[in-house]
Prior knowledge:
This protein is mainly β. Helices cover 11% and strands 44% of the residues. The chain is elongated. The termini are far apart. The mean pLDDT is 90.
Amino acid sequence: MGVFLVETKNIEVIDNVVVGNIFxxxxxxxxxxxxxxxxxxxxxxxxxxxxxxxxxxxxxTNNTVKENSEGxxxxxxxxxKIYLNDIVDNNCSVYSDAQTNQWHSEKRMNYKYSxxxxxxxxxxxxxGYNGSDADxxxxxxxxxxxxxxxxxxxxxxxxxxxxxxxxxxxxxxLFSEMGKVSGAGQYEAxxxxxxxxxxxxxxxxxxxxxxxxxxxxxxxxxxxxxxxYSFTVMEPLSLTASWExxxxxIGTLVSVGIVASVAVASVMVxxxxxxxxxxxx
Length: 281
């Protein structure tokens, strides 16, 4: 029979496998039907996979719509957000008389693809799309036509290959025996974090200073030798400031002064000794 929503609002259809029906999942209305969500369903082998009619502002995401006679049908509807779906191997991918639906994510998002972090809008994966991907971010360089509309950010691979990073919080902790650190806190995964320590030189005594050596990760590696370190956070992270003792500028001047004084004294002794030798002659 499939899943039918009639005159509904704010209803979620999640985690279903719908196979071999006239309609896989259907949303329809006459008076007030809107703001429903179809999430993470597999809709396969139906006459029509997902049908939305006389209903607006729905969200369709993370679904697999495959091997249906008609993948998605949109009739007298608009304002729907349809993204991160696999719409593949259907006789007809989409039938639509609409022009106001959005075939990509509502905003740019941080996501992980092929081991790298990107920021872009994400559309849908289509079996008929053969565009290129010059920057290898997983998003096609040319739009995919969808009836009277377009998916401006078609996916090169199935949506499972893309990991959106919104909603994942990462704690960044900073430790240092001296100086003042900044940049610690909770960050959304994929965010850019800037950590800093100041000052980078702390006096130890008259002759030596503690000098910042680098930021050390939990595995003991130095990730940056700069007091200001910028990076993309993916997991909770702990960084410790490493310090080393070096001669201070005053200590260096004193050392140079002592060496110079000794050198001058040595020259004076030499000249005095030479003069005495001359006087005796």
